[in-house]
Every structure is written in C-alpha cells, then in structure tokens.
Design goal:
This protein is mainly α and 246 residues long. It has one domain. The chain contains nine helices and no strands. Helix 3 packs antiparallel against helix 5 and helix 5 runs parallel beside helix 7. The longest helix is centred in the middle third of the chain and has 29 residues.
C-alpha cells in the first residue's frame, strides 16, 4: 500500500504542475521560481544531512561510493544536455532567450523520464537499511514532490512549444507521470528478488550525485548572473532548514 500511496502522490504532483500551465498560463513565474529554489535547498540539505551519512555507516567500499556519486553528477549533466534543463524544472535558454533550446521531442521525453525513473527507484532505498531510516524515505518523498510540481510545469510549457498535437502532449505527460511509479515497482522487485545492501547503496550514491547537480544548479541558476536575491536566498535557506528541523 505504501508504494500505491507514493505513486498516487507523485502522479498528483505531476498533474498539478501540468494542469496549471493550461488553467493558469500566466501564473506568477516568481511563485514557481521560489518553490523551485525551496526544493533545491531541501534536496541539497537532505542529501548532505540524511543520505550521505546513511551511506557512510554501511559496510560498503567508500571509494566506490564516491565514484558513483561522481557518475551520478555527470550523468545528470548529460540528461540536461538532452532535456534543456526540464528535468530539474529550470531552462536557462527559455528564461533568457525568446526561442526554444535545441532539443527534440524524443530526447526531451527520454531524459525527463530517466530522471523520473531514478526518483522513483531511490524512494525505495532508505527503507531498506532498517526502520531507523524510515523517516528518511518520507523526507525524500517530500523533496521529490516539491520538485515535481515546477518540473511538470516547465515540461508542459516545453511540450506545448515542441508539439502541437494534443495526443502527443498527453502521451508524453503520461509517460513522465508513470515513470516514477515504475521506478518504485522495479525497486521493490529488486528488494524482494535480488536484495543486496551494496546494490542499493550504489544506487543511492548515484542518485545523490544527481541531487547534488540538480540542487546546486537550481540555486545557482535561478537568477541571471548567478546572483541569488534576498527572496530566493530565504527560500533556499527555508528549504534547508526544513530538513534540519523536521
């Protein structure tokens, strides 16, 4: 049932972000910018305070874990190249220029779905290291949901520019919405059938690299010239403090 509820929440967050594009196309961009910065601070803080310390106490080679963090970091850079930044809810090209980034529909959908799949896969991981880490899975789910709304909003905007077909638009959004639940299911199958602590440790290290890139990119590129004005700075700090306090 936990997998079902998590899947429903992720799909609902995706639908909320995409529906807002159609229902409120002129919705205040500053609101989503602040929500995005809040989620960036939340993800960065959660990675540093909860995920990495949890990985360090496992009986796994620490050098290998560091390598997987680096691989995850550069893999996210590769995804950004094909998605134009939609997989972290921010598109620099769209913000500063009046044309679409040089991306295709196929590369956009594949890259954001890969990112969504990893989000779903990693949501299973904290619960696998014992009940004392169960609260970490809820914190990670919160971070994914906070990030998913502006991410879906940006993706919907990009899809509306890339394709004029309503069927294609709906199909791509459905793929994006369902990929994270698919990752949840695959993670559960791995846990039940071929469970090894080291496998999930390396998955978590890989996704930690993803989160490092996503969160730092959001915080640094949320404003022109990488200048974080006071409201966004407060939003980022509140996101980080939320992890520390709760």
């Amino acid at each position: 049932m936990i997998l079902f509820y998590r899947s429903v929440l992720i799909i609902a967050a995706t639908l909320l972000g995409s529906v807002l594009v159609v229902v409120l196309p002129k919705l205040n961009k500053k609101f989503f910018d602040l929500l995005l910065v809040f989620s960036g601070g939340f993800l960065l803080s959660f990675t540093l305070i909860n995920i990495l310390p949890g990985l360090l106490i496992l009986n796994v080679n620490s050098n290998s874990m560091g390598i997987f963090v680096l691989i995850g970091f550069f893999f996210q850079i590769l995804l950004n190249f094909f998605s134009g930044g939609a997989d972290h809810g921010h598109t620099t090209e769209c913000d500063h220029k009046n044309h679409m980034p040089n991306i295709t529909l196929i590369s956009l959908v594949i890259s954001v779905c890969l990112h969504a799949f990893l989000d779903g896969l990693v949501l299973n991981v904290p619960t696998l290291f014992g009940h004392k880490h169960l609260h970490n899975s809820y914190g990670l789910l919160t971070g994914v949901l906070l990030h998913r709304i502006p991410e879906a909003f940006v993706l919907s905007n990009l899809l509306l520019n890339v394709t004029k077909s309503r069927r294609t638009y709906i199909f791509c959004l459905c793929c994006f919405a369902l990929t994270s639940p698919l990752g949840l299911c695959i993670g559960e199958i791995i846990r039940v059938c071929v469970y090894r602590e080291s496998i999930f440790a390396f998955i978590m290290a890989f996704v930690s690299g993803n989160f490092f890139h996503i969160s730092t990119t959001i915080l640094l590129e949320s404003s022109p010239g990488h200048y974080l004005h006071s409201k966004k700075l407060v939003a980022g700090l509140l996101g980080a403090l939320t992890v520390i306090l709760f």
